[in-house]
Amino acid sequence: MNHHYYIYHFYHFLKNLVEYSVIFIFLMILLIFIFIYFKFNFLFRIKVKIIELKPPICHDNNSYVRLIKSSNSKDTLWLSKEENLRKNAYLQTPLKLNEHFYDDSDMHHNYKLIIVYDNFTKDLLLSSRCYSDVNTIKHHILDSQYTEIYHINFESFKNDDILLIDRLCGNVKHHLYRSYPNYINAMLYKSIFLANQRTKAFFAMAREGRGEKLLKKYIILGFDIIGKCTYQNLNHWVLSTNLEKSYQLMLQQFFINIVFVIKNKFKRI
């Protein structure tokens, strides 16, 4: 009888041990998840949205209104936020700009607006536009006040063969942008590449500046310098890359940035 008694209690001891162990493991997993969430919540907060736009329409007073390809009230709000971000970003530059720089009146075909934002507060962190119309791209690069382009024949391209990225605007005062600028830029370019996988060549213009910070960002992503041009009385580098090369380098930078941020986070613990 004592034998059965001990077996009975030993069985219940093991049963309780298993139950408490499961509860303990569950609580540990929950605590780890909470720790990761609060320590690395930027991975959940930073999102990207792509808005497809039609050419803006002109009103009688020579003002332009940007048109969303598929009308959406939320996208209209994003457009308003992007316009404000663009104005605030370019106020800090020596460029002399008029209202048409912000209303996209130079777009005569469909184009895309890429927005990186804080999913919690809906604040914009970074934006850019991109387009594939060959004539518009040629106009922006070749018809500037001074142009010197090497080994590029734009006549050999058709629409959607090439892509130009411009109007890059960062919300440099936002705490998320200040903390994770490289990750946010990588998110933007990753989205551009994934949305334009049939594109054969990417073009970009980087304004000359002290330290050439913008130029270096494009070089890291696999862009090559193909010339220079003058836009709004300021010198710009003209850069180009192909999708496969740039996408592989961009993915490397994307994961390097994540590892770098996580490493720095653990150093502060």
In CATH, the architecture of the largest domain is 3-Layer(aba) Sandwich
Over all CA atoms, what is the radius of gyration?
26 Å
CATH level-1 class of the largest domain: Alpha Beta
How large is the count of helical segments? 9
**Average pLDDT taken over every residue:** 80
H/E element sequence? HHEEHHEEHEEHHEHEEH
Helix content: 40-55%
- The counted number of beta strands is 9
Summarize the structure.
47% of the residues lie in helices and 26% in strands.
Task: Summarize the SSE layout with pairings.
Blueprint lengths: L1 H38 L2 H4 E13 L5 E5 L4 H18 L9 H4 L7 E8 L5 E8 L2 H9 L4 E3 L12 E9 L4 H5 L1 H15 L5 E7 L5 H8 L3 E8 L2 E9 H25 L2
Helix pairs in contact: 7-9
Features:
single chain; 269 residues; alpha+beta; Aminopeptidase; 2 domains; 9-stranded mixed β-sheet; elongated
Could you walk me through the main structural features you see in this protein, from its secondary elements to its overall organization?
The chain is of the alpha+beta class and 269 residues long. The protein has two domains: 39 residues; 228 residues, Gcn5-related N-acetyltransferase (GNAT) (Aminopeptidase). Helices cover 47% and strands 26% of the residues. The protein is built from nine helices and nine strands. Strands 2-1-3-4-6-7-9-8-5 form a nine-stranded mixed β-sheet, sandwiched between helices. A hairpin with a 5-residue loop joins strand 1 and strand 2. The longest helix has 38 residues. It is elongated, with a radius of gyration of 26 Å. The mean pLDDT is 80.
